[in-house]
C-alpha cells in the first residue's frame, strides 16, 4: 500500500523538521509494510517554511511540496493535498504534532483488519491546554450543529484520519468553494471508526486560530451544512403576527370597556426596536447565505499553486 501523508503548513518553519523526524520514526515501525509519500502544502507562509520544504524535498525523494500564491486557509490546503495524493490510503495531519503520528500504526492496523471499514479517524477526549472558554463554545457548537444539520459531526473529531481511496474520491467530488472539511468528511458517509486520545499541545510555533476566527469558522460550518437559520425569519414572523393579532384584540377590548386614559410610548419604542432588530437579523442571515451562493457561482479556484517540487518517477 502507498500511504499519502498530507500536511498543511502555515508559518511552520520550526515544526516541520520535528514533524518529519517523528514521522520517519513511525515509518520505521511499519517495517516496510507500506510505502509513504509526503505532500506538504505551504499555505502562503511568510516565514522560512518554503525554504525548509525545498531543502527537505531535495534531500528526501519521498517528500513533495506545493506552495500557494498566498494564504488560502487550511481547508484549501487540505483539498490541494487530496487532489495531488497518489496513495491507496490517504492521511491528513497537522504539522504541529497535535495529531500524534504514532496513532497511524493503530489506524493502519484497523484498516488492514476490517475490510469493510473505509476510514479511521481520531477524536480528542480531553481539551487540556486549551482555554476553557474555547472548549465550552466548541461543545455548544457541536451540540447545535448536530441538532440543525443532517450530517453527524463528532465532537472532538480532528481532521486527522486515514482513508481508503474511494472515500478520497468522494471528497474530491465535493467541489464546492466554501469548504468545511469536518462537514464534508461526515457528509460523504462511509464507515468511519474513531480512535480516542488525550489532547497534545503543539510542539513549536503558535496556533493561527484566534477565538474570533474560530467563531467565524463555526458560522461557516452552520451556514454550509444547515438551512435551519433561514427558517428562523419565517417562524419569528408567524409568531409575531399571532402576537400582534392577540395584542390588537386585547387593545380593542380594553378601549371599549375602559376607554383609553394614557398612551404608552416606551413600550411602543421597545417593540419597534425589537422588531427592527429581528428584521435586520433575518436580513443578515439571508445575506450570509446569499454571499455563499455568490461565491459559489463565481466558480473561482479554491487555491492557486505558485511553485511545486519536481515530479517524481
Ligand atoms: N494551517 C494552514 N493554513 C492556515 C492555518 C493553519 O495550512 O491558514 C495549518 C497549520 O500549519 C497546521 C494546521 O493547519 O498544520 C492546524 O493549524 P493550527 O495548529 O494553527 O490549528 P489548531 O491546532 O490550533 O486548531
Ligand atoms: Mg495545532
How is this structure best described in words?
The chain has 313 residues and is an alpha/beta fold. 51% of the residues lie in helices and 16% in strands. It has 2 domains: 2-130 and 152-206 and 301-308, Spore Coat Polysaccharide Biosynthesis Protein SpsA, Chain A (Alpha-Beta Complex), CATH 3.90.550; 228-298. Helix 5 (132-148) packs parallel to helix 8 (211-225) and helix 9 (228-258) runs antiparallel to helix 10. The protein is elongated, with a radius of gyration of 25 Å. The structure holds uridine-5'-diphosphate and magnesium ion. Uridine-5'-diphosphate (UDP) binds next to strand 1 and helix 3.
Largest sheet: 8 strands, mixed
Strand order of the largest sheet: 7-5-6-4-1-2-3-8
CATH architecture of the largest domain: Alpha-Beta Complex
**What is the average per-residue confidence, as pLDDT, rounded to a whole number?**
86
The CATH C-level name of the largest domain is: Alpha Beta
Distance between the termini: 17 Å
- The poorly predicted ranges are none
Shape: elongated
Question: At the third CATH level, what is the topology name of the largest domain?
Answer: Spore Coat Polysaccharide Biosynthesis Protein SpsA, Chain A
| Tally of helical segments | 10
Percentage of β-strand residues = 15-25%
Order of helices and strands: EHEHEHEHEHEHHEHHHE
| Ligand names | uridine-5'-diphosphate, magnesium ion
CATH homologous superfamily annotation of the largest domain: Spore Coat Polysaccharide Biosynthesis Protein SpsA, Chain A
The amount of helix comes to 40-55%
The total of beta strands comes to 8
* Structural classification: alpha/beta
Radius of gyration, whole Å? 25 Å
GO molecular function, one term: glycosyltransferase activity
Domain Glycosyltransferase 2-like: 4-168
Transmembrane segments: 232-253, 265-290
EC number: 2.4.1.-
Amino acid at each position: 500500500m502507498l500511504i499519502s501523508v498530507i500536511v498543511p503548513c502555515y508559518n511552520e518553519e520550526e515544526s516541520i523538521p520535528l514533524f518529519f523526524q517523528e514521522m520517519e520514526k513511525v515509518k520505521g515501525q511499519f517495517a516496510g509494510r507500506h510505502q509513504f509519500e509526503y505532500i506538504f502544502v505551504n499555505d502562503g507562509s511568510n516565514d522560512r517554511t518554503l525554504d525548509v520544504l525545498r531543502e527537505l524535498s531535495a534531500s528526501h525523494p519521498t517528500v513533495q511540496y506545493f506552495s500557494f500564491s498566498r494564504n488560502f486557509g487550511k481547508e484549501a490546503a487540505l483539498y490541494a493535498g487530496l487532489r495531488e495524493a497518489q496513495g491507496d490510503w490517504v492521511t491528513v495531519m497537522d504539522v504541529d504534532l497535535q495529531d500524534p503520528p504514532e496513532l497511524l500504526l493503530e489506524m493502519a492496523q484497523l484498516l488492514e483488519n476490517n475490510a469493510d471499514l473505509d476510514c479511521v479517524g481520531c477524536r480528542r477526549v480531553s481539551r487540556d491546554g486549551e482555554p476553557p472558554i474555547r472548549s465550552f463554545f466548541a461543545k455548544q457548537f457541536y451540540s447545535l450543529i448536530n441538532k440543525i444539520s443532517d450530517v453527524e459531526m463528532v465532537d472532538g473529531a480532528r481532521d486527522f484520519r486515514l482513508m481508503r481511496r474511494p472515500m478520497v474520491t468522494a471528497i474530491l467530488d465535493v467541489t464546492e468553494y466554501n469548504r468545511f472539511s469536518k462537514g464534508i468528511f461526515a457528509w460523504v458517509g462511509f464507515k468511519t471508526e474513531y480512535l480516542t486520545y488525550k489532547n497534545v499541545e503543539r510542539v513549536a510555533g503558535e496556533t493561527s486560530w484566534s477565538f474570533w476566527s474560530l467563531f467565524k469558522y463555526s458560522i461557516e460550518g452552520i451556514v454550509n451544512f444547515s438551512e435551519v437559520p433561514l427558517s428562523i425569519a419565517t417562524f419569528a414572523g408567524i409568531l409575531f403576527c399571532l402576537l400582534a393579532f392577540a395584542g390588537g384584540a386585547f387593545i380593542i377590548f380594553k378601549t371599549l370597556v375602559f376607554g383609553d386614559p394614557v398612551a404608552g410610548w416606551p413600550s411602543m419604542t421597545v417593540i419597534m426596536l425589537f422588531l427592527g432588530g429581528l428584521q435586520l437579523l433575518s436580513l443578515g442571515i439571508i445575506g450570509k447565505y446569499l454571499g455563499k451562493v455568490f461565491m459559489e457561482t463565481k466558480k473561482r479556484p479554491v487555491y492557486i499553486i505558485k511553485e511545486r517540487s519536481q515530479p517524481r518517477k
